[in-house]
Design goal:
By secondary structure, this protein is of the alpha+beta class. The chain has 11 helices and 7 strands. The strands form 2 sheets. It has a 5-stranded mixed β-sheet with strand order 2-4-5-7-6. Helix 4 runs parallel beside helix 5, helix 5 (162-218) runs antiparallel to helix 6 (224-256) and helix 7 crosses helix 9 (304-320).
């Protein structure tokens, strides 16, 4: 009953009853007005008749005239006489009383017809409400299924009414929730895999550090060369852990959207020189030469700090995968649409089937070193994509590997 007699239903029912009562009232008022006109016409005719008779026959008594008006005389003879003069003949009512009787019958039939019509409309209205209640109940069940996490519902409806429109919108919402649920499940799995990878990446160097520290503490007479080698290895492992944690924190901040990336004009050459200066010692350690051939006029737009971080990770990866006595080149060019940055090294070829996974978190390609974590390139891509650019990799046998970065070109002021 709640669905039947909600506020909307009550309002519609009151409107229907009000219109029905108004229609019946108007019809009865029209018939009553016509009846009053007939009575006025009858009274005027009777008054004219009495006046004419009294004028023609002054000797006639009022009692005889009243008796005649009350119909106490030979009606058939009177009808014949009047018919000869065209009065009350043909389609006209026989008498004024007959005319009023017809009006009473018309009023009765009209009231009955309108009452039946109102009842029929009410029946149709309640049938509509019944169907509407069933459809709303169906939608409520769908909503309950959605609340239970059942998104495998197909509730499309092509009818042209408001409930069908609501049903179609609910279907769109179902599809959205289904995709969100799938994405959430995918993210949970990715998070679980990431946690497992992080645990593995941190556990291995920590175990190594623990073993080295135990050796240092248990062997007080260890020679200085071995001790320095152990300390250097501990420092190296801790540096790797620090870099991993720092990179993961940066990725987490980007994923959470708590970092506001700035948009400012930058000179690509200055950015490249800044990155090369930070990686100079790393390049020397790997016996690799860094070279940046970027014209001063080449510009791009983005956040200097984060773009420097992205480029640093890409160049660092290129250095670590370059053979000794080779060169890592940074180049840039521009056209009317974009600025192109490239980082090229002479390392081993990356197979095509691995190139599409290269920027995934914790993915390590075949040529990757044993101590590679596989997160630097993922961070670089995340930064570049969030600033409106994109990055690809090209790798061929005996030609090396080239990382290609594109940004929309902006004029330098």
């Amino acid at each position: 009953m709640k669905l039947y007699w909600n506020k909307e239903t009550k309002r519609l029912a009151v409107i229907m009853v009000s219109y029905g009562v108004i229609l019946l009232t108007m019809c009865n008022l029209v018939i009553a007005g016509y009846r009053a006109a007939v009575r006025r016409e009858y009274n005027q005719a009777a008054a004219a008749l009495i006046g004419g008779v009294m004028e023609t026959y002054p000797e006639a008594s009022e009692e005889d005239l009243i008796r005649v008006l009350n119909g106490k005389g030979p009606v058939e003879d009177g009808e014949k006489i009047l018919a000869r003069y065209g009065i009350f003949s043909g389609d006209s009512p026989v008498t004024f009383a007959g005319r009023e009787s017809s009006m009473n019958a018309l009023q009765l039939y009209l009231n009955l017809l309108l009452s039946i019509l109102l009842i029929a409309l009410s029946a149709v209205f309640f049938c509509y409400l019944s169907g509407r209640r069933k459809r709303i109940s169906t939608l409520c069940r769908y909503m309950e299924e959605l609340s239970r996490g059942n998104y495998e519902l197909d509730i499309q409806n092509n009818a042209d009414d408001e409930l069908s429109g609501l049903k179609n919108e609910l279907y769109k919402l179902t599809v959205l929730f289904r995709e969100q649920a799938r994405q959430a499940m995918k993210n949970r799995r990715a998070l679980a895999d990431s946690v497992a990878d992080i645990s593995h990446q941190i556990k291995t160097p920590l175990a190594s550090v623990t073993v080295l520290v135990d050796n240092l503490s248990e062997n007080e007479n260890m020679d200085q060369i071995t001790r320095r080698r152990f300390v250097a290895e501990i420092s190296k492992q801790l540096s790797g852990i620090t870099w991993l944690v720092s990179t993961l924190l940066k990725l987490s901040k980007l994923d959470a959207g708590v970092i506001c990336l700035e948009k400012e004009p930058l000179k690509a050459g200055e950015l490249a020189q800044e990155v090369c200066a930070k990686l100079e010692l790393n390049a020397e350690w790997h016996q690799v030469t860094l070279r940046a051939d970027i014209p001063e006029t080449v510009g791009l737009s983005g956040d200097r700090k984060w773009l420097s971080e992205a480029l640093l990770n890409i160049v660092k990866n290129a250095i670590e995968h370059s053979p000794a006595e080779s060169t890592v080149r940074l180049a840039a060019e521009e056209n009317d649409l974009y600025t192109l940055l490239t980082v090229h090294n002479s390392g081993d070829e990356i197979p095509p089937e691995e190139q599409k996974h290269l920027f995934e978190r914790f993915y390590r390609s075949g040529p990757a070193r044993a101590d590679s974590v596989g997160i630097g390139l993922a961070l670089a891509k995340e930064i570049i994509v969030r600033q409106g650019g994109y990055i690809t990799v090209e790798s061929e046998r005996e030609k090396g590997t080239t990382f290609v970065i594109k940004f929309l070109k902006i004029p330098l002021s």
